């Protein structure tokens, strides 16, 4: 058998395996003449096929494996956790990894998931530190990881004013450190809202958003019902039941407790987030209203088979994104 025939058989076998596996080249949506193109050209990963783990090609199996097994096996000890008092008396925190690196080492600031804790975010913290060698600052929102709640206020998507105070703390400790941002799932809402509000007035050099929701007013509609129900129960477990005395004066508490999915919860909990009505809450929290004012490089990663952060949420914004000079979406 000639070498050329052998290579053809080998290539055919590889293509067949990729077909069965569902391996594909990433799709990238961006402005072809925009500033982001220079960054994309330096990323060889975007020109290679993504090959999922063979036994985890099903998105539901993948998520359950990650949540029930993978998270439990990651061993990582944070260097320290700083508890911060916000200007209104509320409590947030920053969990540090790589704290003792040289002062001018860049810092990756992470905005976590909807129920994120230092424990649940260990894999991302570890991987970012390994890949970059940089310091990691995980910004914890109010009510997360059992933080005290002296002020009755939480937000599924965080608070840009709290984030600004956390960034001030980071910069006060490491004034010579360049800052980069990573938002995960619900944390992308906070990240993008902050970047849109601030425009060029931000210490971040670049940002990365993974598993985004885009428009928070409609994003929960497309969450798979099983995960929506399960995650709503987690919201009760972590943010409502442990703080029942805190919420005792909230008039809408019973409506919140009657929610059976994320969409219902998000529509009713606005008072807990510090707003008089749902419309005011949305105008203050939803990143989509300020999205087009983002001025720094931002890459968004959205799996096409994500049952929680659905790719359907991208569709209304695919064209506007491709008119922005500094934003790219990878699917």
From TrEMBL:
PANTHER family listed in its UniProt record: ABHYDROLASE DOMAIN-CONTAINING PROTEIN, SERINE AMINOPEPTIDASE S33 DOMAIN-CONTAINING PROTEIN
Record domain AB hydrolase-1: where: 106-265
Descriptive protein name: Alpha/beta hydrolase
Gene Ontology molecular-function annotations: monoacylglycerol lipase activity; short-chain carboxylesterase activity
Cross-referenced SUPFAM superfamilies: alpha/beta-Hydrolases
Family, per entry: Belongs to the AB hydrolase superfamily. AB hydrolase 4 family.
Keywords, sorted A to Z: Hydrolase
This protein's record includes keyword Disulfide bond: no
